[in-house]
Amino acid sequence: MNQILYSIIPGTITKINENAINWGLQGLIAFGSHSAIVIFDPVSFSILQVLDGHDSEVVCVQWSPLLNENDLENPYHSILASGDVLGQLIIWDPINAKIITKLPDIKKRKQRRKILEIKWIEQNKNYLLTLQTPSIITLWNINLNSTNSEIIEIWQLDLEKTNDIHESCLFFELNTSQNYSMIIGSDTGNLFFTNEFKIHKKRPPKILRKIKTESHETTKFFSEEIYTPSPQDLTIKQIQFDPFQKDILYIVYARDITILDLRINMAISRIILNEARSSFIQLVLTKAQNHLFCFHEDGSLSIWVQRVTNKVIKYEPITFCEQLRIIKKKNDGFIISKLVASPFKPNNFIFVSENEIWKLTYKTKRKRMQKKEYEPKILLTGLFELINSPITCMSVSEYNRNLIGIGTEKGNIQIFSLEKFLIKSSFFILNSPIRGLKWISEDKIICFGYKMEENSYKNQIFILDIQSGFLKEIQIKLAENDFIRKIKLSPKQRYLAILYNNLKPEIWDLLFSEKFEPIYKKKISDFLWKANERSDKETFVFATRKEATGFLCSIEDQTLSPISNISFPKSMTKTSCIDWNRLVLIFGNYSGNLYCAFIKPEFKTTIIQVGVTRIDQIKLSPNPNSFLLLVLFIDGEMSIINLKNYQKITSNTSKLQFKYRITNADWISETKIVAMCSDGFLRIFDDKLICQNTIININNFTKKPQAPYLFPYKTTLSLKTAFQYGLKIIENSNEIEDEEIFYIIKDDENEVNKQLIEINSSISNKTKKGISKCDNIPELCIFTSLFFGDQKEERFWKLVLHYLQFFSNNQELLKEIENQIENQNKNENQKENQNQNQNINQNQNQNQNQKENENEKENEKENIIEHYDDDDETEIQKQILEDEYFSKPKKERLFSLSRNFGLFQETEKLKQDRLQTADFHQTFRGNLYPLGKIIIDDYNLLNQHSKSLPILMETQMKNPSFFRDMMFAIAISSQISKDQTIQTIKQIGSNLILNGNHHDGAELLCCSGLHEEACNLLQNIGKWTYSCRIAKFHLPFEKSKLIFQKYANHLLVQKNQEKAIEIFLMIGDFHSVLQFLVELKKFDLAYLFYLSCKKFGFLTKIEEENLKENLKENLKENENENLKENENENENENENLKENENQNQNENQNQNDSISLKDFIQKPFSLIPLNDLILKSKIEYGNFVFQLGLINFAKNIWINCGERGKELIGKNFPKKEEKQN
């Protein structure tokens, strides 16, 4: 028998399991099935693992976010959290099939609260939130890094106790746009908004406000249809944030979807279902912008596309998938799980029905005659069949014990293969349950069933050919006043014994369709045939329930004759089951006793007491020379008995150990047993009757899974390294073209190389094709981060690619900016530390004189920077990188950042999105002053003064903001007419900011064209985001760069280096990016970033200048040392200190002059010479790949690392002579 892939073969899902499904970033799908969790690989389309650890049905599952820091000392594990009906929370390591930790004392709790939902905290894999009935939200800390992992409660929010909210909460959504806050949905249609909370503090958040989402308030603006919902339609099914705009919230009802803009607290659009369509149950949002995927109650899938006409957003359905709806119509109560979308490809979806896993793919085909029009379709691209439980019967083939026949309650027979661990074939037999089946040859099964018809039974017996699917009914006259309990076909398939529930047994000659005379006129308990290979005689034995006697008979030439009777002792009354082989004949009874008649080596009889309850089934080992017996009791307990020494080898106690009852069991090998369980699963036990979760070993799978984290951790990181360099394979080391790049060498006997070559053969052609399209390291790293599911690295490398391409195409701009920065007055650093009021007065005249020059430079800068094409990103047919990006020539490629990158996007694109939003909000405004205020702010931010002025003039006298709005109107008018009131307006705005009214003051300064002053004042009071937004929109690059530089310095003071790195990337300060990657010990990213910059022509010239200057500095240091030796020893210590300080200042100035893009702003850190950073990244990256086992690659890196590299090579690569000694 082949290796057991997993010990639990799952059945169908239940109603409670509907929401228990999740597609993780590592590429695996987890879903609940009864009390177990199934791990499924969507690429190889196979089950990898089944985890059994819950005591009740699983309600929710959630993969943890991938936060892989490539740390060999603390390797990443795929972590899964699951919750059940009884409130048990378990944290799993699915790959190693073990429970990391779970909530303690779950059985001792008085109130067992059902866990409805689980959400991990992004960017922190140690914290998660749970929602339990009726309205309890808890934040947990999971110590995954410690040896003894445990779950610690941080805080608990009970809405009923703390807020007096007597509503059941159904779901919650985590808002991560600014820190952490929650939106909670109740069963009455209310939404509760909490304030922000910090995960490290034990103070739970508070409810700030409550919104009653009236779904029935409909206007023609949303839809031209008139819709009056019923009270049931007002129940909220789901809430979800837009993945690109965190201020947009989708609220799903039964018959409509409302899109809410939280920035203005208004509904901006609505989708209303046609009356002929089934109700919504779920909304799925993917990376496909402007596309909504809706799942319906009847199993259909609809796709809606956003259309904007006359500043009105509407959604139109473009296609419906009806395949599952047709199936569900035929089956009442058909259960479907939640739909999950691929985190990598937005057009792939998977869901689980009762006994099948479905994969749907959304594709668009271009019409033949029309080039621009596309025909959307949803195709079924994968189907995996599960056991169609409840199971009614089971039989292991005696001819091939890798095949198991399964009869179901729905009248199907499924053939499960233990070689491939999947359903090999499935056949529909009856409209009623299959009551029993038995293999009669390698490819034939006999089965029976019955159904009630008025006051009679319709019994049917069939023979199924599993190769051809041919079904033959045995045409004999069966009783109608009783149902069949068992059938037994003789080994030569001529005689059939039928045992009814209450009637006397029958034996039929199938050759002539004749029935023998009754052999026994009372009810018998069991019947068993014994083959006789030497003659046509067929022998059978049977026993009764009342008499303590067994009967041995034979049939030959249509003659039935008794042979002998077997008398039992009085303790063997009420016989229940029989088994027989060439060594022993065994009877089991209702009292837990076994009567054994040993035929060989000598005849003897004995009675063995194995239990106290009824023995339901006994099975001798398939080894004909073995004396092992499997005993199954009526209560589900199993035991293995050694008949040779009359001892019970092992036993399990079903009542104590399991939450299910075993109803049938059989041997599949000498050491393995398969059991049919009451929860619809098949479980495989070892010879100690233990069924435990098995570790995933991809070498046991014929079709290799594609999830990279299934490999050992070092192998995974080695594969990631190979991907980052383009998966280049060469025959020998002589073919190496670049020593700084990693190659997989076929002739290398290194174990890691061998593993990578084996893995390469199992990688799909689509993946290899995607790698071949990449032209540089950032593109390869984006591909790799998406393949490995690392969102942090994906974001980092997209920013790297975007800004490397941008600055590579604008090198002249960089030179101008560098010259301007170098020529700045040195006293400006001191001015930044002076008082804010003095700073304003000193800069008034200077800013007034430079205003016209700044405006001209701003226009020139905008013309240079904003040259990106505003491509429509609504096409859903995308690979890991956009097809449009790869379709262009390599020299013309420009990677455009999507909307969720916020301020990092192109300025014109950011302005265009903001202006469209403001115009769209204007259509809703009406007489609402708060909304008008938001629109005015947006228009003024975008220099759309002609649009904001009429709105300001509408402010009424009664409004407390009347004088403020009039002041703004005057400022805007003066800006339009260029009046001589700017100085006064500037001073008013400054005073407003310094007195705490920063928003009004900044807006007033911006309206007057004083954007730089507004930015500086806002930064002085800590309003960094607002300041950067103004700088991004209005200041030229050389000015906005200084604002962002200050923001980056502030982030460094706050120890937020990762965010600061992104800012440095945006302003082109690649030196600082490299330094902080090294300081964060992300040496793999640092080295790859250095190679990327080198590819685009950055950091190379600086490196040469640094090397020259370092040589000069070394010569100066030697001269100074010689002079110091000749000086008088009794010189004053203060004079020596002064000289040393002067020397250090000179050295720092020389180093700083050689650093590209060095700001005149005083930084809270000192820049390390670039050459030292490069050397450090090379050495540490070499250590990293050396620990992975990529020895030759590490040696190639260390070769270029000077003396330190030679030391490492000498230490780790001893010479051959030293090895021999």
From TrEMBL:
Coiled-coil regions listed in the entry: 807-867
UniProt-listed Pfam families: Beta-prop_WDR11_1st, Beta-prop_WDR11_2nd, TPR_WDR11
Organism for this UniProt entry: Anaeramoeba ignava
Residues annotated as domain WDR11 second beta-propeller: 402-510
Biased composition, class Low complexity, residue ranges: 1142-1151
InterPro entries: Beta-prop_WDR11_1st (IPR057852), Beta-prop_WDR11_2nd (IPR057853), TPR_WDR11 (IPR057854), WD40/YVTN_repeat-like_dom_sf (IPR015943), WD40_repeat_dom_sf (IPR036322), WD40_rpt (IPR001680), WDR11 (IPR039694)
Extent of Basic and acidic residues compositional bias: 1113-1127
Top-level taxon of the source organism: Eukaryota
Span of domain WDR11 TPR: 855-1132
Matches recorded under PANTHER family: WD REPEAT-CONTAINING PROTEIN 11
Domain WDR11 first beta-propeller: start-end pairs: 15-312
GO cellular component, one term: cytoplasm
Record key words, sorted: Coiled coil
Annotated region (Disordered), positions in chain: 1113-1151
The protein, known as: Wd repeat-containing protein
